[in-house]
UniProtKB/TrEMBL annotation:
Signal peptide: 1-26
InterPro entries reported in the protein's UniProt record: Ice-binding_C
Species, as recorded: Phormidesmis priestleyi ULC007
Keyword field contains Signal: yes
Protein name: PEP-CTERM sorting domain-containing protein
Length: 272
């Protein structure tokens, strides 16, 4: 009999007090999170509940499946070229199955991937623009919610709605890699959506987020919209680079002379 799995949201064991972002220098930052996680998401057995007795963890831990989480954004003027993706890996949670506190979400420098997608026709059929291998950076209990920046090999132009995604393949028992920002109840929706999909090692699940394969995910439906919160997953973009205009030799020479003169004046300027 196949064991059924579910993508389970687990709230923080302790309240995060600090938030640091590596995206502050980007020209355009696409984000729907507030920079602070309140939970993390990972695959667990469906039979595990918050009130059930602790389940002994097996050693070595089994592989539950591949977890993919995405945020969608609308392209803004001045941010049409995406050059990097920022993601927070995991959060400090208590495993609901074993009832043990996980300071690092059970993560330990595993290989992962990020993706940049577009949906040119708006039909949920995603087209891959770029992907990049990376290594998971486990959360630091003393400095939570640190974004890891993954720079794409080439800047990619986007328009309309685009998606950024993080893939955690071969998720093991006791791992919760997707950091989640949960907004206060009653707050209006933010300008963007979060999505979730996963595939299991058994190849079956009754969850609406189940997909036969998520490496890479090609099709999204409304069932994949994740409404519990927003992923700490961002994109960084900028405007198209200015085209260089060839200058004549005489102009270049004048610029060089002016630069040298300015340097001389600066050196001779008396101290105030």
């Amino acid at each position: 009999m196949f064991q059924q799995f579910t993508a389970r949201l687990v709230t923080l064991s302790t309240i995060a007090t600090l938030s640091f972002s590596s995206a502050v220098n980007a020209v355009t930052v696409y984000q729907i999170d507030d920079g602070k996680s309140e939970a993390a998401v990972g695959l667990t057995p469906s039979s595990c509940t918050a009130t059930s007795p602790p389940i002994p963890r097996t050693n070595p831990p089994p592989v539950f499946g591949d977890l993919l989480w995405l945020n969608s954004f609308n392209t803004r003027a001045g941010g049409e070229f995406i050059d990097s993706i920022d993601v927070v890996w995991g959060a400090r949670v208590t495993d609901p199955c074993t009832k043990t506190e996980l300071l690092d979400s059970g993560l330990s420098n595993e290989p992962a991937k990020v993706f940049l997608y577009t949906d040119a026709n708006g039909d949920g059929q995603l087209e891959l623009l770029a992907e990049k291998d990376t290594i998971v950076r486990p959360p630091d209990p003393k400095r939570p919610d640190i974004f890891s920046r993954i720079v794409l090999d080439q800047r990619q132009q986007v328009s309309g709605t685009f998606y950024v995604a993080a893939l955690f393949p071969n998720q093991l028992e006791g791992q919760f890699p997707a950091a989640l920002d949960i907004p206060p109840a009653g707050t209006p929706p933010r300008a963007g959506k979060s999505w979730l999909a996963f595939s299991t090692s058994s190849g079956t699940s009754t969850s609406p987020y189940f997909a036969p394969s998520v490496d890479p995910l090609l099709k999204l439906t409304n069932d994949n919209v994740y409404t519990a919160g927003y992923w700490l997953l961002r994109a960084n973009g900028s405007a198209a680079p200015l085209k260089s205009v060839p200058e004549s030799t005489s102009v270049i020479g004048l610029v060089a002379i002016a630069t040298l003169s300015a340097g001389t004046l600066l050196r001779r300027k008396p101290k105030s």
